[in-house]
Amino acid sequence: xxxxxxxxxxxxxxxxxxxxxxxxxxxxxxxxxxxxxxxxxxxxxxxxxxxxxxxxxxxxxxxxxxxxxxxxxxxxxxxxxxxxxxxxxxxxxxxxxxxxxxxxxxxxxxxxxxxxxxxxxxxxxxxxxxxxxxxxxxxxxxxxxxxxxxxxxxxxxxxxxxxxxxxxxxxxxxxxxxxxxxxxxxxxxxxxxxxxxxxxxxxxxxxxxxxxxxxxxxxxxxxxxxxxxxxxxxxxxxxxxxxxxxxxxxxxxxxxxxxxxxxxxxxxxxxxxxxxxxxxxxxxxxxxxxxxxxxxxxxxxxxxxxxxxxxxxxxxxxxxxxxxxxxxxxxxxxxxxxxxxxxxxxxxxxxxxxxxxxxxxxxxxxxxxxxxxxxxxxxxxxxx
Length: 384
Fold this sequence. Notes:
Blueprint: H1 5-16, E1 23-27, H2 45-58, E2 62-66, H3 68-84, H4 91-110, E3 116-117, E4 122-126, E5 132-136, H5 153-156, E6 159-160, H6 169-178, H7 200-208, E7 213-217, E8 222-226, E9 253-258, E10 263-267, E11 273-279, E12 281-284, E13 296-301, E14 309-317, E15 333-339, E16 343-344, E17 351-356, E18 359-365, E19 368-371
Parallel strand pairs: 1-2, 3-6, 7-10
Antiparallel strand pairs: 4-5, 5-18, 7-8, 9-10, 11-15, 11-16, 11-19, 12-18, 13-14, 13-17, 14-15, 17-18
Helix pairs in contact: 1-2, 1-6, 3-4
């Protein structure tokens, strides 16, 4: 129970469905910013009190479980390491993968619980043979299956999403009001929960440091300088402060961040179009394809609110295994996804979630991308 309206209604529905429910709030941070009224995350002291009031109203036991140390190691430190390596991480994916459906689920099962229920908008469908599949929510606008794409078959066996068939958030808020929940009109959480003031650039500068470096074109020519490569992301246009205009007079965009050389690579907007993405850190949500080494048709989604794009996917052996510090051992295979139309502004570190229809088939953390408009001197991939 995060302290928000979605998990409040999910808990109430689970009780009405006949389940023996215990409310659990996760204490994920001990940083002072998360104690301040008005913090914009989802795990503040105020949130825990909101969750307790709802639990009391429903009439269920309520506990606060401290996962702050594991959250720091598995989510916060990972976030810093990924940016240091020039990648663009998704901390919400890591939190679902390593905290809510790993650390929390492991403890719950050890204590004798059957499942973890959350307020995510997604559905679980059981096929004729009893296998569980993760599917999109009933309403596209509220679908959150993307951030759950990291769940494995075993985790899906112990997951419940009571809001999956709900048509709208307005209906959830109306139900919360009818139940007398004080969180009925509470604003949704946003931004990164462990950066409560929303200043990601400043937060990273304190932990990674800021060192001046070069801004270069894809051919290696220097066109400017920067005060810290970690503050740039692929697709960024503003804040480049380039000393030389492009020959065609058009704006440049960040195409790549190179942490080893401390360089930021820029180029034309069309160079952001990506014709292929791949990642060795891939998992399947439910049963894996019977023959993943044979190319199959699917759709790929690269951001939580992006439209899916038709694509072809295949699992191939890696020429050279990709080592990723702090992650599981590098696989000797990678999931390669080729969109039928170019993706735009994709960065290593992002998550690509693969769908077949409404079903989430699996996901990968993107290790490399291939530009649809490579420069003459470009290698064909950007391996972080």
